[in-house]
Amino acid sequence: MLTWEIVTWLLLPNFFREYCSMPYLKSGDEIRSIVAKYTQAQTVWLDTEVADYDTRNPRLSLIQILDDSTDLTGESVYILDVLDQPEIVTEFIDTIMVNSSVEKVFHNAKYDLRFLGKKKAKNVTCTLEMAKQIPYYVLPLPNYQLKTLAMTLCHFQNIDKQQQSSDWGIRPLSDEQIEYAYLDCIILAQVHLRLSELTQKINFDAATEDLTLLGEKYVELEQQWKLLKSEFEHLQQRIKQAMLAQNLSETSDFKLNSYERTTTKVPFSELVRLVETQNVDLDFDITLTKDIQKNLGDNLQQLAVDVSKTSSLRLTSKQEESEE
Predict the structure, then answer these.
(1) Total-model pTM
(2) How confident is the model at residue 301 (pLDDT cuts 50, 70, 90)?
């Protein structure tokens, strides 16, 4: 069985040069042939590389695709060179992206879908969005980059993202660029599997939840949170006061920013006068606060009032109520 330490070694670039056959397809016929195979896949893991990505006219350069999550060598990863082949891209979209029977997994899918079908794409999973849906206490990360997720969840090391911003419009591509393109699909598949496992762990059946146990945990955390919140706010005040007293706007850990908030007010009667004398169109809805309704009194009945109601649930512990 492969351990993550062995996997880390396998992911070193020299391994690819020596052992991996690197299925890198350039011709339209080769690409069409392999794409047809993926219509039978249940899930594919995808990535793209884009030429001129920082210009107004970005061009899709590569599509990387993997359909075997157990492949940690890259032998099942195909790189499809679609630079300046819009008809091939269109066929890929029509064959794979709009095919609802094939799950397509991306990291930051919103970016890739700009080039691969946009809103027409069906059955798309985004590992970036999956990670964001997992509570911070379960997955405490400084960011949700694929590299960060891979290092945290899969213990991958030595992940070099330097080629990400390289020139994907040049041909031939360098060995380093091709190696980078292969790695992302492998990493993505492993991250997706780990995120799926975490998602299953945090999903509970609300109908069978033990409210007694949940309540005990809630009260315990509530007390800890009150202590931490109090200490945190007190520290904030001390730091701000210390920086002001020492005439510091920045330290190695903090930056003290000042800002002003401008509020513009006018008597309502002035608005009425403006409408009557200057024929200004101010026909828009105004939210009537409780104070305004009180001041209007019975006159409120003479207005064409639109009343809408929304319902929400607020959880309050009985201990909190008894303290009030």
Answers:
(1) 0.75
(2) confident
